[in-house]
Amino acid sequence: GKAGGTPKSSNPDYYDGDIPFLSIKDMTSQGKYINYTEKTITKWGLDNSSAWIIPKNSLLYSIYASVGFVAINRKDIATSQAIYGMILKDNVSLEYMYYYLTYYKKNLHKLIETGTQGNLNAKIVKNFDISLPSLKEQELIVNYLSLIDIKIELLTNEINQLSKFKLSLFEQIFV
């Protein structure tokens, strides 16, 4: 894997093209799966920067500013240098690595380079000490954690519905 790159914003010919261009904001607003990006770049912008195309179903990891966000892209995309794209080997489950790196975020403070803001770099990410069980075990872990995610989503939706119901009762009772 490697980090992306940002075409010069001073050149409008580099932007508003056909290539989705991922930002940290896109990652934090969409969660686990990236289905779209706010910005796009042109082929010229891609060729004249250190940006590269990260194939769909790769792992995306934020390494600048909002460090430690993890996502999976559902389409080919380019990213800024704040995001490290990982193409995994066949013996590694994409979903397992998503969960592992989500968990690993709590350890990042020990590895972050300090400056005005804490950042990681490609070398640090490549040297993460990752526990990797067999692919079969990875898949069992993913299935279990995915079921918990589904339950969390259902309960979150139920809480949101109850909150709306409560507000509508307030309006009926206290008007």
Mean pLDDT: 90
Q: For the largest sheet, list the strands in their spatial order.
A: 1-8-5-6-3
Gyration radius, rounded: 19 Å
What top-tier CATH class of the largest domain fits best? Alpha Beta
CATH superfamily of the largest domain: DNA methylase specificity domains
CATH fold name of the largest domain, please?
A: Adenine-n6-DNA-methyltransferase TaqI, Chain A, domain 2
- The secondary-structure element order is EEHEEHEEEEHHH
End-to-end CA span: 59 Å
Tally of discrete structural domains: 2
Oligomer: single chain
Major β-sheet profile: 5 strands, mixed
CATH architecture of the largest domain: Alpha-Beta Complex
Structural class estimated from helices and strands: alpha/beta
Count of DSSP strands:
8
Number of helices: 5
Helix content: 25-40%
Shape: globular
Poorly predicted ranges: none
State the main characteristics.
globular; 5-stranded mixed β-sheet; 3-stranded mixed β-sheet; Adenine-n6-DNA-methyltransferase TaqI, Chain A, domain 2; 5 helices; 175 residues; alpha/beta; 38% helix
Detailed description of the structure:
It is a single chain. The chain is α/β, with parallel strands linked by helices. It contains 5 helices and 8 strands, in the order E-E-H-E-E-H-E-E-E-E-H-H-H. The protein folds into 2 domains: 127 residues, Adenine-n6-DNA-methyltransferase TaqI, Chain A, domain 2, CATH 3.90.220; 43 residues. The longest helix has 39 residues. The chain is globular, with a radius of gyration of 19 Å. The model has no long low-confidence stretch (mean pLDDT 90). It comes from Methanobrevibacter millerae. It holds the Pfam family Methylase_S.
